[in-house]
UniProtKB/TrEMBL annotation:
UniProt-recorded name of the protein: NAD-dependent epimerase/dehydratase family protein
NAD-dependent epimerase/dehydratase domain ranges (all copies): 4-224
InterPro entries: Epimerase_deHydtase, Lipid_A_modif_metabolic_enz, NAD(P)-bd_dom_sf
Native source species: Devosia sediminis
Family annotation (Pfam families): Epimerase
Coiled-coil regions listed: none
PANTHER family referenced in this protein's UniProt entry, alphabetically: BIFUNCTIONAL POLYMYXIN RESISTANCE PROTEIN ARNA, BLL5923 PROTEIN
Length: 315
């Protein structure tokens, strides 16, 4: 029986992963800053990752075979102060490097890092998708911090017995999701006319349960060692199609007006909402075919089933 330690076990992805691993023959050890309500697994304390990076604290990895690192600051806001930016990198980069060093000392066999497809960039051209062997091209501080986290992990593991696996997912959704995706669910339920019928982009996503299933497979799969794994549901859909599916699943009418995307982009840019335009109107495709073939993996949930689960579970 392998001992699997998970940072961020109380977070959005971490909770799904703990639930998924409870179905297998593993001893799960949540690494958390405080006990997870309702979780019966014995936990170990995880200090603040910035403190860990600064050498002010340590973490107990004794007896751990596999370390899955999900804890991170998951986004960077526009116009961060320099202090906020330094904290982002201290947590995401310094914290990962410190955990990798502790894993080497403790004799951990494999370190799985949950990274992000934003390491590859922010948008894809029509008919193209990000691949694991593409040059990294992060365009914001969050994407850059995840790239540097990957690099710090790999460089720390060189010359040691520590195996590394890096997983890059796009947008993750599922039961408990909040933020913009939850707002989109609420908006689509109202059945209001929306000027998105002319949007024919393609965006990759991954259901949190599909991501947890992939992590569970990759954490001890022989072929995953040393790999960067691109992750997605395997079905890319447009923003207009996503809204239509969300509306139908909630029994709401679909009212999409065909306004050219170029007009919407210009209008949102004039309103200072370029970030919203990028998320709604641009394409962001991830090629996960290589991951599925390498690990012989099929996402257990289809998009419609995963969307239905998301709708029925409040944040």
């Amino acid at each position: 029986m392998s001992v699997v330690a998970i940072t961020g076990a109380g977070g959005f992805v971490g909770r799904a992963l703990v639930k998924r691993l409870a179905q297998g023959q593993h001893e799960v050890v949540p690494l958390v800053r405080s006990p997870i309500p309702g979780n019966t697994a014995s936990h170990r304390d995880l200090p603040n990752l910035a403190s860990l990076a600064a050498g002010e604290a340590g973490v107990d990895l004794s007896g751990v075979d596999i370390l899955i690192h999900c804890a991170a600051i998951t986004q960077s806001k526009t116009n961060m102060t320099e202090a906020e930016r330094q904290h982002l990198f201290a947590v995401n980069v310094g914290g990962t490097a410190a955990l990798a060093r502790e894993a080497v000392v403790a004799g951990v066999k494999r370190f799985v890092l949950l990274s992000s497809a934003k390491v590859n960039g922010e948008t894809t051209a029509p008919g193209t998708a990000f691949r694991a062997d593409d040059p990294a091209a992060p365009l914001d501080d969050y994407g850059l911090s995840k790239l540097q986290a990957e690099q710090s992990l790999v460089s720390t593991a060189v010359g040691t017995s520590l195996e590394t696996v890096i997983i890059r997912p796009p947008l993750v959704y599922g039961p408990g999701v909040a933020g913009n995706f939850r707002q989109l669910i609420k908006l689509s339920a109202k059945g209001l006319p929306l000027p998105l019928g002319g949007v024919h982009n393609r965006r990759s996503m991954i259901a949190v349960d599909n991501l947890a299933d992939l992590i569970a497979l990759a954490m001890d799969h022989d072929k995953a060692a040393g790999r960067i794994l691109m992750a997605s549901d395997g079905e890319d859909i447009s923003t207009s199609e996503l809204i239509a599916r969300l509306a139908r699943l909630q029994g709401a009418p679909v009212r999409l007006l065909s306004v050219p995307a170029s007009i919407l982009i210009s209008a949102l840019a004039l309103m200072g909402r370029k970030g919203i335009a990028d998320r709604l109107l641009s394409s962001f495709q991830v090629d996960s075919a290589g991951t599925r073939a390498l690990l012989d993996w099929t996402p257990p949930l289809g998009v419609d089933a995963a969307l239905a689960d998301t709708i029925s579970s409040p944040p």
